[in-house]
Records
---
Amino acid sequence: MTKYQEYLQNYDGEPMRIMEVCGTHTAAISHCGIHSILSPKIKLISGPGCPVCVTVTAYIDRLVELALTPGCVVVSFGDLLRVRGSSRSLNDAKALGGQVRMVYTPMDTLKLAAAEPDKTFIFAAVGFETTAPVYAMLLEEALRAGIQNIRLLTSLKTMPPVIDWVCANQGGIDGFLAPGHVSVITGSEIFRPLAERYSIPFVVSGFEPEQILLSLYALVKCRGMGKALNLYPSVVTPGGNHTAQQSVKKYFMPCDASWRGMGLIPGSGLCLRPEYQQFDSGSVALTEDHDANPACCCAKVLTGAIGPRQCPLFGKVCTPQSPQGACMVSTEGSCYQYYVNKRE
Ligand code: SF4
């Protein structure tokens, strides 16, 4: 047992509520059982870091509508296909004859669009700072190759504004395990203003069990301090990846964005710049949001107000085989992770 593990196991100080913002951290913690070795005084709470989970109903509805429009093809990552909008998912649209293609990277859209120039290929551009550079690369390459039948339906989001929202509206968080992948692009310093404003420590962490344990140890030790630490220096720098930041800046600009369960958060999204509007598939004003099943508590789970098991549908009618909400669909969703790893 490492000294960090021993400390976290025997901790008997002030109760700590630590939010792991990133879906990949939720998955790593659940998979390795880190939550189960912590002192009862340390609670881990999953946050709004799963891009599929935070996508609002109106966005899914718009994708379904596009998939059913003659001449249009919706291109998406696999997770999103199973999320239900008001009444249908993209998989449902496909079953009705809609055009939907699943890809592993947005760059695959180039080949699809070049092969069928008579159709319009709309990429479901969800994600955070990590994914935005890939969409910028897609547009760069489409322009270079003269491919004109690619569009984006953007639902891109950025982390600091939503963490700010959680601190201001939800409260009760004593430390943040800051997202490792996002930090590769943004840099670790992006969290310092939030740490100082709310006097809460932020620790950028890797995804290996020892890295997570060390980061949790640092968070507990820094309780009440407005510090931003980078404990993932092998890939995260204070200023982040400038090349990626510049390429995102070239095509996208900040905008207000709607988050499931949180509503419209000013400046929390990225949309296409006016000079690249030819790539936009009508992304603006997609604000309507409600859970497809009225009893689903995704909105509360995403903000850390309740844990997945407190949802009355968890494990009964809602399972990965029959998901009732987005948090049970994505492998990064907290309900999915709590279910498959039997996390309490
Ligand atoms: Fe929604 Fe299912 Fe999670 Fe309940 S268990 S919050 S229904 S996804």
---
Amino acid sequence: MIKVLRLGHRAGRDDRISTHVGLTARQWGAEEIVYSGERDTSMMESLEDIIDRWGGDFTVNYREDWRPVIRDFDGVTVHLTMYGERIDEKQEEIEKAVEGENLLVVVGAEKVPRWVYHNVDYNISVGTQPHSEIAALAVFLDRVSEIKSEFEDADIEVVPSEDEKLTEEKN
Ligand code: SAM
């Protein structure tokens, strides 16, 4: 089971990025995203609307008190940060550590509290330059998981095409 914790959401400013963090988590096989920071029901509802239509078993939750999500997690915890150890050097070790275990991936927005750095199993960088939580999450999950292709109970599915935009309504 893969779960993603998105820290420090700022309503309005982060809506699109936080929605895309959720969609990225789902595409790479996560089962749940937990948002913290400002409670933003409209962002979470618009994400849930997309998920309802495109299917799959993916849960969207909010936790104001996010520390227990890390502290009480039963599995391996990874915080993605440009200050962490290089993914290329730790990938093999993490792959072994998550075999048969749950995985929690933590991504931030602005400044991530120092507490996180000291309470996760791994602080991992995807390159040591600042970029985006969406990119970091996609690259990390692609290294340790895979692109999910089956989304149960979808109302709509893409029909892959060389030169057309094709979809199929399922219900
Ligand atoms: N100074 C931040 C940091 O600690 O990585 C950059 C803030 S960035 C706007 C928001 C989030 O994107 C970070 O909290 C982190 O999760 C992710 N991120 C950005 N660059 C990253 C990188 N090179 N490697 C891993 N994660 C990164």
